[in-house]
Design brief:
- The protein is mainly alpha-helical.
- The protein has 17 helices and six strands.
- The two termini are 38 Å apart.
- It is an enzyme of class 3 (hydrolase).
């Protein structure tokens, strides 16, 4: 063989890999449909007759009696049959926000399916397992401002999403949202610091954003019993309170919520340029959401939120003069160290599209030093993230289960890797599932539409269910992705 050809061969192989990677056809409408279908696989409680993921059966039917409550229903957050109100509420907020911003772009059938998915968790907020189902209860003596604030946001956002479809339901949600917010604001404290709760939720669902805590003593008297003194970690209100107030302001048009934001925003430092958005950090989402009020000149005293939103966007642009940039993998995926990286990519992608919408409506753009950024640039950036997740990446792999020719086969999800009761009627006790967990076989039950935690910072991904951070899907990864897919299903754009 010609020596020159040998030297050129690696170069041509690289070109070929690039062409194959970028020639993958992406059907955003199909991906949208599957991303919504995923939530049926996360359902807990009694499964309705029109369930489309048929291997999922009734489960956790005994949740709540010990607290004289019916806690059946809602969603499992990930693959381990845990129902966390905090993450479930964030999931609900993001699904509702997707409908608010992009619902008109959705095919009617998928809009209906999304509303059904939202209602399943919103109703819960106001598999047959032989394990104990421990319930943790929040009350005045053990408050949880971040959880209650997120519940308020979820119910308020959902009330907006349902306003034109079910006005009575919308009104009832708004009333419940107001009550949740009042509770969050009246009893300040983090549930991660509540002794009865933190050992059950930490380290998986701790509020790591936390409170800037100070200690104070409080004397509490039990009626007809005794008096005792306890100490609690409490200080300023957190981002979830501003987040909840912002959604209640948007849903109710009650001026007291906007006044609350204007009065308490600096104390909460919610408009800080924190370049993260997810179930535990709402700062970037708050800044984008409240920027709409600034751009439309509907409220005063909120300019700092718009400035922080602009700064957040600039951190996403490598060529900008931002002092702190968000990292990307060599293949172009937004990357942050920690658990389940794709939660960052999907949530930030959603914010890019929402902010692009707000900027276009106001004919605005962002100054990132020497770079001027408009709506079109933000949409191209968002599309690159969506395309990467769906298969245009160095692995040529879709990170959505059941989408494309190559996708994860061994996800970390009990309902997916343990045989369905329909195929295996004999009881599989909790510890007896280990044989399936440790198996190298593909999961027998395909959780269509599930987006897994995703690849590591070098774009590598091992299809291994024991690697939880990479192989576990969660509702809070999928929820913002629904909105992004709704946009591109309606308005596909091409890379520049």
């Amino acid at each position: 063989m010609n020596p020159l050809l040998l030297l050129l061969l690696p170069f041509w192989l690289l070109i070929l890999q690039f062409v194959v990677c970028n020639s993958i056809y992406l059907n955003y409408t199909e991906a949208l449909s599957k991303s919504i279908l995923f939530f049926e696989g996360q359902r807990s409680g009694y499964i309705p007759s029109n369930q489309r993921i048929t291997w999922r059966g009734n489960s956790a039917l005994g949740d709540g009696p010990g607290f004289f409550s019916d806690l059946r229903g809602g969603y499992y957050n990930g693959g381990d049959n845990v129902k966390s109100t905090y993450t479930m509420a964030f999931t609900t907020t993001m699904l509702a926000w997707s409908v608010i911003e992009f619902g008109e772009m959705m095919p009617k059938e998928e809009l209906r399916n999304t509303l059904v998915a939202i209602r399943w968790s919103a109703d819960y907020l106001p598999e047959d397992m032989d394990m104990n189902r421990t319930v943790y209860k929040l009350q005045a003596i053990d408050p949880a401002s971040e959880v209650a604030g997120e519940v308020a946001a979820a119910l308020a956002a959902t009330s907006i999403a349902f306003r034109s479809f079910d006005p009575y339901y919308s009104d009832s949600l708004l009333k419940a949202a107001s009550g949740a917010f009042d509770y969050a604001d009246l009893y300040h404290g983090s549930y991660s610091e509540t002794v009865l709760i933190k050992y059950g939720v930490c380290p998986y669902y701790c509020a790591f954003d936390g409170y800037q805590a100070s200690i104070y003593s409080h004397t509490h008297t039990h009626t007809h019993t005794h008096t005792h003194t306890y100490k609690r970690m409490v200080t300023h209100w957190q981002d979830e309170l501003i987040w909840g107030a912002a959604w209640l302001s948007k849903a109710s048009k009650d001026e007291r919520y906007m006044e609350y934001i204007q009065k308490n925003g600096d104390t909460l430092a919610a408009n800080e340029n924190i370049n993260e958005f997810g179930w535990d950090k709402k700062h970037a989402g708050i800044n984008v959401l409240l920027s709409k009020e600034v751009l439309e000149r509907k409220a005063y005293g909120l300019d700092s939120y718009k400035t922080s939103a602009d700064n957040f966007i600039c951190t996403l642009i490598p060529e900008s003069s931002s002092s702190s940039h968000i990292a990307y993998t060599p293949g172009g995926l937004i990357y942050r160290e920690g658990e389940k990286n794709l939660q960052h990519s999907t949530s930030i992608t959603f914010l890019l599209l929402v902010y692009a919408k707000y900027l276009k409506q106001s004919s605005g753009s962002i100054n990132c030093g020497s770079v001027r950024v408009g709506p079109a640039k933000l949409r191209v950036m968002a599309k690159r993230q969506v395309d990467y997740i769906l298969g245009k990446n160095p692995k040529g792999m879709s990170y959505m289960v059941g989408y494309g020719r190559k996708y994860p086969q061994r996800i970390h999800h009990r309902g997916s890797f343990i045989p369905s009761i329909k195929d295996h009627p004999q009881v599989i006790k909790c510890k007896e599932g280990s044989i399936y967990f440790n198996s190298s076989n593909p999961n027998p039950n395909i959780l269509i539409g599930a987006v897994v935690g995703g690849p590591q910072k070098d774009d590598e991904y091992e299809d291994d269910r024991t690697d939880i951070s990479k192989s576990e899907p969660t509702t809070y990864i999928n929820a913002p992705f629904v909105g992004a897919l709704a946009f591109f299903a309606a308005k596909p754009i091409h890379h520049n």
